[in-house]
Design a protein that fits this description.
- It is a single chain.
- With 384 residues, the chain is an alpha/beta fold.
- The chain folds into two domains: 261 residues, Aldolase class I (TIM Barrel, Alpha-Beta Barrel), CATH 3.20.20; 69 residues, no CATH class.
- Helix content is 42%, strand content 20%.
- It is built from 18 helices and 14 strands.
- It has a nine-stranded mixed sheet, with helices on both faces.
Length: 384
């Protein structure tokens, strides 16, 4: 069985107001440096040490996907990411069609660095654009210039990336339906083959969340957010993009195989500060602070801060929560008798695709996708 590897790069130039990811700016690390390169010193060596640890535990096991996330991985030189890829290939081996993705901000790459990333082995890139409207980016606390987006996408294609993806966020306070559709139209005018679009979530402990609680920002109502999703799905279908997970659309053959590994509860090893891993029903997570991670990994000790063994019930719950979000759906027979007894009421509301229902599978219809969280909650509560 192949392995997936996630590599967390926990550095950003500036923290976006809505973000609660495990990321750090140079100022937050309080070492007196304003340089990401300076605060990241020793981090790649620590990643290489964890790779050696993973090899000692797992032996040689081919890797089918690698994903550099963050943070902003492309703040590190392409050569540093290449060192990680080379170490993984040497320790484990890569499948012949290994998907190697990096996330990037539009202002963290240029034509030259994109060529270097491609030479380092990265073959898929995902741009965190979020919106092309300046006033929406301002609310989100994003730093990039929207006018740069078209250029970097074209530069990525020229550099030879096999897949180019774009991330959008909808439901930002002050964003109209027309605003969001303009962002979608612009994305579809570019040579991308994958798009992710996520409804904005108010996270506790963030600058954005505090502004919402104080009443300084007003979140849109659910109907307005749902309308954006429906219009988005229509446009994606007309442009030849199929939905394959609630928040993801791609042209045929360009689905993100790394994310599919997560949703199918496959095995993956998470390298880096705060990264989570899952091997054969055991999950663990690394120390979150980069310096603590570096200290543990550099000493050839496990950087794990904790772990859990998933019970069969927990595995079933996770499979339901994740796989019902996918285009393939789930088999009716995989559900408990209590859960199956609830299905007819959902089906009578046209929340499942009729052809799949007749074939014994639950695949969410467009109406069902809008209510996916509610459907999952009710199915899980039926077993309580």
């Amino acid at each position: 069985m192949s392995l997936s590897v996630y590599v967390h790069i926990p550095y950003c130039v500036k923290r976006c107001g809505y973000c609660d990811f495990n990321t750090y700016t140079p100022g937050e690390l309080k070492n007196g440096s304003e340089s990401v390169a300076a605060v990241a010193e020793g981090y790649v060596d620590a990643l290489l040490a964890e790779i050696r640890l993973a090899h000692r535990r797992l032996g040689r096991r081919e890797i089918s996907t690698i994903f550099f996330g963050g943070g902003t991985p492309t703040l590190l030189p392409a050569e540093h990411l290449g060192r990680v890829i080379s170490a993984l290939e040497e320790s484990f081996g890569l499948t012949s069609e290994c998907e190697i993705t990096t996330e990037a901000n539009p202002d963290s790459v240029d034509a030259d660095s994109l060529v270097k990333l491609r030479r380092a082995g990265v073959n898929r890139i995902s741009f965190g654009v979020q919106s092309t409207k300046a006033h929406v980016l301002q609310v989100l606390d994003r730093t990039h210039d929207a006018s740069r987006v078209g250029a970097v996408v074209r530069e990525a294609k020229s550099a030879g990336f096999g897949s180019v993806s774009m991330d959008l966020i909808y439901g930002t306070p002050g964003e109209s339906l027309d605003d969001f559709m303009e962002s979608v139209d612009f994305a579809l005018s570019l040579p991308i083959d994958h798009l992710s679009a996520y409804a904005l979530i108010v996270e506790q402990g963030t600058k954005f969340g505090a502004a919402v609680r104080r009443g300084e920002l007003l979140m849109p109502n659910d109907d307005e957010t749902a309308e954006k999703y429906v219009k988005l799905d229509e446009k994606m279908a007309l442009a030849g993009f199929d939905w394959y997970e609630l928040s993801n659309w791609s042209k045929p053959g360009h689905e993100c195989r790394h994310n599919r590994a997560y949703w199918l509860s496959a095995d993956w090893w998470g390298l880096g500060a705060g990264a989570h891993s899952h091997i054969a029903g055991v999950r663990w997570w690394n120390f979150k602070h980069p310096q603590k991670y570096i200290e543990k990994a550099a000493s050839e000790s496990s950087p794990s801060a904790g772990n859990e063994v998933l019970s069969e019930d927990e595995k079933s719950v996770e499979s339901l929560m994740l796989q019902i979000r996918m285009r393939e759906g789930i088999t009716i027979n995989s559900l408990t008798p209590e859960q199956r007894s609830m299905l007819e009421q959902f089906n009578s509301r046209n929340l499942f695709e009729s052809e799949s229902w007749s074939a014994g599978r639950l695949v969410l219809s467009l109406e069902g996708r809008l209510l996916a969280d509610q459907i999952v909650r009710e199915l899980l509560s039926s077993g309580d």
